[in-house]
Structures are given as structure tokens and as C-alpha cells.
């Protein structure tokens, strides 16, 4: 067990790595704590891995590295890194020198002394183009509303976690944007933030294009829906299906009664298929049944999943692993 683990996901960051490594060393060794740095190379195709190999060779007690097979995304890189950590407090940090290692001591203190489970960086003054900062504001607003967490900057690469947090969250897809929400979902409630110093990208270029916003929003919807209904799909699908079926049923009743009424009054009637309610009835009943069936299938999936009840352990004392 070490005091500090620093997980650094990276994709084609060869120029930044030596500088970052030296900076982290400088800051953390002055804290007098034991630490490890875990570089996770997310399938870089520049010479990042070569640079990392030389960093490991220089300081094998501290520097560790994982290389993913191909570019799998930042979330997968974090997942691999988290699994390998042995530190009491775990940090994540981008490799592009935009996040400052100088924040480590204070964030460490917030975890150890103030009792936070997770401390998220807040790039209050950002050095990124407007095309990025404006949508990000909207994003954070929606995330705040959806989660109830009072954070300004969900997607900051610089974060500090208690060991238990990184071992409990299930991060995949592009969920790295919502790690605080994932932590909240497995029961960690002391989630705070610290204003952190941010810098413009010094080398290379950003690895996320415009698709970040679309994917990001879709992921948020998944997180919220799975969180609310993941264990009881029938409650959402069944409700929608039932509602639609009702609309269809009453449309059918209306068509039938209306026709009978006209016949009874001896007035000219139209064919049922010429009545617009017929099509409303048809679609609603079909969709309603489909939603219902989706709910059933969802329930069956939940039930048949080999289910070990999740235990969310808060801390461990004198227990290895
Ligand atoms: N990154 C990664 N895999 C990817 C994309 C990015 O590991 O597929 C890393 C990247 O090398 C950097 C961090 O994630 O260390 C943040 O990426 P970037 O700086 O490009 O994002 P931005 O700061 O523009 O949001
Ligand atoms: Mg960056």
C-alpha cells in the first residue's frame, strides 16, 4: 500500500510526458509520502510508450505503466489504471500538462483531513477555446440538475479519490465525464471540489472533437435512466406501454360507439378505416404492447443476471484487498 497513486491516461502525448513526470516527482516527493505513478497508454501511435519505458526504467519503484491494445478511450484507460492502484488516495490527471501537479498536496489534505470521498478539480479560469467552454457550461448545468451534486466542473481531468471509490465505480464508455455521478450512485456522498489552476495545452492537440457533446449527452441520459430504472425496467416501460394501450383502447371504443350511434340514428356512416381515430388506435395499441414486452424482457434480464448483491463498503481497516 502506498499513500498516493497517480493515474495518468494518455493518448499521443510524447512531448508532455517527461516534463509531467519530473513535475509530479518534484511536488510529491516534497510531501514526504510514498507514491506511485501509473501511466495508462491508450494505444498511442507516437513514441509515448518509448518515453514511458524510459521513465519506468529510471524509477521502477515509483513509475508503473499499462498499455491498452489500441485506442479504447479515456474511460477504459482510467478503468485499467484504477484496477492497478495500490494507493490510499488516488489521483487522476491528464497527461497534457493542462492540469497542475501543484494541486496534489491540498487535494490530498482534503481527502485525508476534511473527510471527502472525492475531490473534483474546478477549472474556474479555463484556458481552452470558446467552442469548448460554452457547451461545457451547459453540460455542467444539466449534470448538476440531473445529479443534485453541487459541482461546477464534472469533467475535470484532475481529481482525487479515496481508494475505496476507485475500486467501487464501474467506468466504461465515455463515463469519465461523470465520475462524480458514478461515485454518488454507489453511495459516496462526500463529494467536494477545489478550484484548480489550469493551463493552455502546451504540446499536441485535443483528442476530443465535436462528437464529445453528443456522446456526452447520451451517456448522461444512460446514467440517469439506468440509475432510476435499471433495477425495475417494468416501472418505466410498463407505465408508458399501459398509457399508450389505454389511448388505443379508448380510441377503439370511440370508433365503435360512434359508428353504432350513427347507424342507430339512421345517418350515413363512413368506413372505420376512413376514421382518423382508427390509425391512432392501431399505432397506440401496437406501441403499447411493444413497450410492455420491452419491460418484461428488461425484468427477465434483471432477474436472470447472476446476482451477487452489491455491497458498498465504505472503508477498510487492516484488510488486504
Ligand atoms: N486521452 C486518452 N484517450 C483518448 C483521448 C484522450 O487517454 O482516447 C487522454 C489525453 O491524452 C489526455 C486526457 O485524456 O491526457 C484528456 O484529453 P484532452 O486533453 O485531449 O482533452 P481536453 O483537455 O481537450 O478536454
Ligand atoms: Mg487537455
Give the helix/strand layout.
Blueprint: E1 2-10, H1 17-29, E2 35-41, H2 48-58, E3 63-67, H3 74-84, E4 87-92, H4 104-112, E5 118-122, H5 130-147, E6 159-162, H6 163-168, H7 179-185, E7 191-195, H8 211-229, H9 233-265, H10 276-304
Magnesium ion (MG) binds at residues 94, 96, 98, 201, 206.
Report mean pLDDT, rounded to a whole number. Answer: 91
Q: Which ligands are bound?
A: uridine-5'-diphosphate, magnesium ion
Q: Kindly report the name of the CATH homologous superfamily of the largest domain.
A: Spore Coat Polysaccharide Biosynthesis Protein SpsA, Chain A
- The oligomeric state is single chain
What ranges have pLDDT less than 50 throughout 5 or more consecutive residues?
none
Structural class: alpha/beta
**What fold name stands as the CATH topology of the largest domain?**
Spore Coat Polysaccharide Biosynthesis Protein SpsA, Chain A
The portion of residues forming beta strands comes to 5-15%
Number of strands: 7
Helix content: 40-55%
Text of the CATH class of the largest domain:
Alpha Beta
Q: Helix and strand string, N-terminal first?
A: EHEHEHEHEHEHHEHHH
Number of helices: 10
> What would you call the shape?
elongated
| Strand order, largest beta sheet | 3-2-1-4-6-5-7
Q: How far apart, in Å, are the first and last alpha carbons?
A: 10 Å
How many domains in all? 2
Structure commentary:
There is one protein chain. This protein has 321 residues and is an alpha/beta fold. It has 2 domains: 2-229, Spore Coat Polysaccharide Biosynthesis Protein SpsA, Chain A (Alpha-Beta Complex); 234-302. It is 49% helix and 13% strand. The chain has 10 helices and 7 strands. The chain has helices at residues 17-29, 48-58, 74-84, 104-112, 130-147, 163-168, 179-185, 211-229, 233-265, 276-304; strands at 2-10, 35-41, 63-67, 87-92, 118-122, 159-162, 191-195. The protein has a 7-stranded mixed sheet with strand order 3-2-1-4-6-5-7, with helices on both faces. Strand 2 (35-41), helix 2 and strand 3 (63-67) form a beta-alpha-beta unit. Helix 5 packs parallel to helix 8. The longest helix has 33 residues, at 233-265. The radius of gyration is 27 Å and the shape is elongated. The mean pLDDT is 91. Bound molecules: uridine-5'-diphosphate and magnesium ion. Magnesium ion (MG) is lined by residues 94, 96, 98, 201, 206.
